[in-house]
Design brief:
The chain is mainly α. It contains 29 helices and no strands. Helix 20 runs parallel beside helix 25 and helix 28 runs antiparallel to helix 29. The protein is globular and about 70 Å long.
Length: 611
Amino acid sequence: MTLTAIDWIVVAAYGALTLAIGLRLARRAGRSVEDFFVAGRSLPWWIAGTSIAATWFASDAPLATAALVRRQGVFGNWLWWYEAAGILMLTFFYARLWRRAGILTDAEMIELRYGGAPARILRAFSAIYQGLLKNAVVMGWVMLAMVKFAEVLLGWDAALTLTVCVSLALVYTVASGLWGVVVTDVLQFVAGMLGSITLAGIVLARFGGPTAMAAAIREAPAAPAGALDLMPSATGASSLEFLSFLCLILILWMRSGQGDGYVAQRLFATRDERQSVMASLWFAFAGTVLLTWPWIVAGLGSLLVFPAGPGADPALMADPELAYPMMIRELMPTGLRGLMVATFLAAFMSTMDTHLCWGASYMVNDVYRRFVKRDGSERHYVAASRVAVVGLAVLAAFVAWQMESIQRGWIYIIELTAGVAVVWLLRWYWWRVNAWAEIAAMAGSVVLANGRALLSAVQAAIPLPASVLDMAATFYAPEMDLVRAVVILVTCTLLWLIVIRFTSPEKDDVLDRFHRRVRPGGWWDPVAARTGVVSSDPPAARMWTGFVLGGMFVYGSLLGVGCLLTGRAGVGLLLLGVSMAAAVATVRLADRDTAPAPRTPPTSPPPGKSV
């Protein structure tokens, strides 16, 4: 499809505005590494939270969401809906702790929490694990989504798409660091929401509104069974999906509850503890509720516009992730197509710039500055950060070139991080967790997530029994994806608990230093007795109350809007009423338990020093 002149004007205007913002902020970001990576720790909650949500709204998300609807129905989106509970855990239990730590990256926290050679090794490994391995996979699927989008709407090949899009993202990320990222993220969030809501509105209008569209989908012979179900069934053909759903409930807060990566980076960058908590709460709502349903509506509409069965588009049948751009091509008029191209460009850039900036922070702060060049100037490290951004972009483009499925990338990241979930949660609240425990959990997770490839390598050298190969084939089958994630979580948790039993705790001076700075609650009694420092957290009962109320707020909104959009208005309105009441209580509780202006947090260590 060739866009018209009006469409291209819309796209060009958006691109020019984004680049102008990034270049305008270049001088501010160049003052220091702290300015480049955490925006001088001055962000208000609404910018930080919107920036996180905009990063979640990557170019892969609409494509993968629509594909989940076509394959499994609406409930397939629990593949990422479950993370809202983890974000709420972050809001009430960990956001304050991250802000008090006063660090540049979550890998830097390792040498604040642990000491000695194991901490140094773990910090370097974690930086490479997070900043290169995990980060490259995430950026790879984001680029893959943009390749698929451009193939359908613009007729571009992969090389041209990657060249154009990566170049745009690089210009202002290299120039302005996190300052440019967060400011343009607000613009990109607004543009993305406007485009996706417009498409969803056109879909609903075409089929006569939510009730009429829901009735048509129920009668469509090619639609998946239970396409409109918001929760999977415990019986029948979808029983395996229900088992997977239970597995997700088990790991929801364990995997994402403490926050890490770019989410933690935004919390470091907020003005104070109160701003970090409110940023996390806003992200939970905006990322889960506001972004979700427009994509799902487009996916539901695609079941009627492009039904499966005889005569179906063979490209769509082979790759359901093409459904979303095909809906744009089919339904959007001139001018609005340009808006959608700008929307996807916004989604792509908001994610790419974040991951480039975040990944570079590991490479510079936790590898280069910590282990290679310890006495450079701030300008030197800012220049090194810009070089790291370019290198990460090239690596991500290579990964995208090798990748075929966005959803498979999502599953891989869930498995890759499942094993470290519990140790990451407890390292803040239990003094006995040591560096060796975290190393064991991380190594076990990497091995189990890549078990199929490792077995193939072993089989090439040493023939394995057929029974072992059969068990491995069953365990690594696609239908076992989420069950496998729970097995990885449980196995690695047992592994690191055993490691703790046979290794020494961290030294007293290391534990005391961490406790004085972060002032955590939980099981720190021996350390608190030595330091005399009282926890700055509210009582555990209030934090759990906030978590429960927050869950009623976010999931009530999510399911309430879902009922309205699938023809169940009465239930939907009831759920929204409960959600709004819970929202008021949640915000009041979060605001009550956070001081608006705590003492100034300590800054990152001088070059060459451990935290």
